Amino acid sequence: MSEPISGEQYALAAGPYRAVVTESGASLRELTFEGRPLVLTHDADELPPAAFGQLLIPWPNRVDHGRYVYRGTEHRLAISEPARDCALHGLTRWAAWRAAVREPDRVRLTHRLLGTTGYPFRLDLEAEYTLDATEGLGVRITARNVGTATAPYGHGAHPYLTVGEPIDDCEVTLDADRYVPVNDRKIPTGPALDVAGTPYDLRSGPVLGDRSIDHAFAGLKRDGDGRAWVTLSGGGRTVRLWADEAHPWMMIYTADALPASRSGLGVEPMTCPPNAFATGEGVVDLEPGAEHTGTYGVQAGS
Fold first, then answer.
1. Are 276 and 87 in contact (CB under 8 A)?
2. 50 in helix, strand or coil?
């Protein structure tokens, strides 16, 4: 019996929402509201283009030259982005995850991350996807250190929001005071800067136009529940992504290099900024026996 290259497909449903999560990487392959997509999707027998819907564990974004020093020991990760000589988006996005819980509106997937060259640490991971008829999709990511050494840890997620329109014509809102400048290899060149007076000021919900953005944002403003929000609106539709306080950084990517250029907006909640393993900024020191949890979600807006 044949099956797609992304493995088993876990279909979820609640009210007007539908979602599909894959065995490969515990990735979000589809999310719809009333039959219309809220995220860019791909075929089950196709590799996810540009990290569509993938989880980024145990680090999001890039590690410069794949090298970092942790607690006095130098580590060298495999270079997974040769064009920029970087280790990109962690170690688990192509791995097989097992279903520990499977219900019509919920699936919990698990993965045993064993030690490897460049990351000689041992984590047990969970990714739980839940659909709610009113609140939409919620995703909880948990890492437990079941090894003997304190491990550096970070995570992120990589959905591309869509309202079915080119993002140039859409309004994008992110109430963030600072952005992280980067060089041509997408490595930060210094501390986060004030967004005021720059193309990266998205606080008032401007029309995106021809802005090209591939930057992390900090200084996120939050609601009374501690959630930071990104809103994409256009063509009479709105989609919103929220992230809890475990995610102090939000990556915005205008997806200029996608085959269907600028058809969706990459919105990536992250626990640490790009190149964090090398700089130490935002890295969680996950001690033996400890765990770290973060949640984010996506919903249709009114």
1. no
2. helix
Nearest CA among 301, 300, 293 for reference residue 139: 293
* In the block, residue with structure tokens 């403003």: 221
**N-terminal to C-terminal alpha carbon distance within the chain:** 43
What span, in angstroms and rounded, lies between the C-alpha atoms of 22 and 284? 27
Q: Under DSSP, is residue 61 helix (H, G, I), strand (E, B) or coil?
A: coil
Beta pairing, strands 62-64 & 67-70: unpaired
Q: Quick one: residue 167, left, alpha or beta (phi over 0 = left, psi -120 to 50 = alpha)? A: alpha
Please report the DSSP string for 149-170 in residue order: S-EEE--EEE-EE--SS-GGGS
pTM listed for this prediction = 0.97
Q: Of 244, 245, 262, nearest to 253 (Cα)?
A: 262
Distance CA 117, CA 82 (A): 17
At 98-156, the pLDDT tens digits run: 999 999 999 999 999 999 999 999 999 999 999 999 999 999 999 999 999 999 999 99
Q: Which residue stretches of the chain are H helix?
A: 276-279
CA angle, 179 then 183 then 186, to 5°? 75
CA–CA separation, 91 and 59 (whole Å) = 8
- Average pLDDT on 279-301 reads 98
Phi, psi at 118, each rounded to 5°: 90, -20
